[in-house]
Amino acid sequence: MSAGYDAVVVGAGVLGLAHAYHLARRGLRVAVVERHPAARGASVRNFGMLWPVGQPAGERYELARRSLDVWRDVLPDAGLWHDPCGSLHVARHADEEQVLREFAAVGDRPCEVLNAAEVVRRFPAVRTDGLRAGLFSSTETCVDPRQVIAELPAYLARRHGVAFHFGTTVLGYEAGRVATTGGSVAANRLVICTGEDFRDLAPQAFAESGLVRCKLQMMRSAPRRERLGTMLAGGLTLRHYGGFAACPTLPAVAARFDAELPEYGRHGIHVMASQNEAGEVVIGDSHHYGDAVSPFDDPRVDDLILDYLRGFLNLPGLTIAARWHGVYAKHPTAAWVAARPAPGVLAVTGVGGAGMTLSFGLAERTVTEFLGDSGMTNDE
């Protein structure tokens, strides 16, 4: 590594790239250090959904909307594919339809409940049998996470002068110097955005953070000619996202799921689908929590996901071209964790499954607070 920097960001996943963007926009000399030849963690193993609709009203939803605004500036400027296709939650039971209507009635976000005929007219891939309604939100945008994470570094280097050091591991930070496998470099600040690997550089802060690991299983289809027209979610998703938590009917829906679909609850399964530019449909997912999550995938989980998907979506001749699992860090109650493990050091992680949705808005906030904290204390 060469000359010194005002800030070094550790990790080239979406949260690290977002912090590098906001630091550089403030006029700082910024470097990003990534230990792998390319980022390969949770940031490339997701649906590519920029998904404000799932966030609870208030701070989290506003942060998601701010993040989306930044994405809408960055994506066209970087020449990256994106589809402002919105989202559709499909209801196949009366109680699910009631939750959708309760959610829409609050009126705090742009969405509408469509009857069954309207759903099928606009989105012909949705199954007609048993369909009751759908909640359409125009806000959500789809990206290809593999493309975004692979190509944003070149954009940040070209447009904002961010330096990237791939295949380089940060070993430590002390007295304004970052020690790496590529040598030592002067840096006024260190920002750690290493996801579940947060503990490697800040073990004490990680131990005190309350974070847990979450493993999920996902799949991707072979390219399909027909377009879904939107990103889709089934009824199980209603109890997964906090945006629906305040709906009065949701507890009854969750109780029915537990009675009728107990295996889905045991594996933390809810089912969603997005489609990228190539026509591949990304399908998932499951949620298993704890440090002892297995490195081995369970084919039964994939079967359950696909069975539920086929219940609300017609994908004739579906061929699964890829299967994988991802692991991310999540806090049981907080939407993210921001720690100050040492003077001049900020660690941000724990965005869970909302990394694509929250990262640019969250990074804007944490960068503002970090740069404004001249005392650089150790409080969180």
TrEMBL record:
Record flagged with keyword Transcription: no
Single GO term (MF): oxidoreductase activity
Coiled coil, from the record: none
Gene3D superfamilies to which the protein is assigned, alphabetical: D-Amino Acid Oxidase, subunit A, domain 2, FAD/NAD(P)-binding domain
Record-linked Pfam families: DAO (PF01266)
Gene Ontology cellular component terms for the protein in this record: cytoplasm
Ranges for domain FAD dependent oxidoreductase: 6-366
SUPFAM superfamilies reported in the protein's UniProt record: FAD/NAD(P)-binding domain
Keyword Lipoprotein: no
Cofactor(s) required, per the database record: FAD
Keywords for the protein's UniProt record, in alphabetical order: Flavoprotein, Oxidoreductase
Similarity remark: Belongs to the DadA oxidoreductase family.
Protein name: N-methyltryptophan oxidase
Record organism: Urbifossiella limnaea
